[in-house]
Amino acid sequence: MQDQLIVMAANFPLHKGLPSSFCKDHLPPREHKMVLEDEEGVEFDAVYIGNRTGLSGGWRGFSMHHDLEDGDSLVFELAEPDRFKIYIFK
């Protein structure tokens, strides 16, 4: 399971880039729909963009809902092929 975790700083409110090595190993090279789930079980629809190795089309809503700021840390757990559980540390 540890290879399915990403620890990152919270930034880029419109697009969340992910490590390319993680994306290559665990996510498809094309665009597809994903669900972002927070610690409370609240879900946000997002789009993973394979050629940009990042999340868009829903990341901004997740970020704003949780009032993410520079300095916050995030742990992304790839719980399913199309679902990230995201843990926030402020």
The string of secondary-structure elements, in order, is EEHEEEHEE
**Low-pLDDT windows of residues:** none
Q: What is the CATH first-level class name?
A: Mainly Beta
Query: Helix fraction?
Result: 10-25%
* Distance between the amino and carboxyl termini: 24 Å
Portion in strands: 35-45%
Give the overall pLDDT as a whole number: 90
Query: What's the helix count?
Result: 2
The name of the CATH architecture is: Beta Barrel
How would the global form be characterised?
Answer: globular
Classified in CATH, the superfamily is: DNA-binding pseudobarrel domain
* Strand arrangement, major sheet: 1-6-7-3-4-5-2
What is the count of structural domains? 1
The CATH topology is given as At1g16640 B3 domain
Overall SS class: alpha+beta
Biggest sheet overview: 7 strands, mixed
Attribute tags:
single chain, 90 residues, alpha+beta, At1g16640 B3 domain, seven-stranded mixed beta sheet, 2 helices, 7 strands, nucleus, REM16-like, DNA binding, B3_DNA-bd, DNA-binding
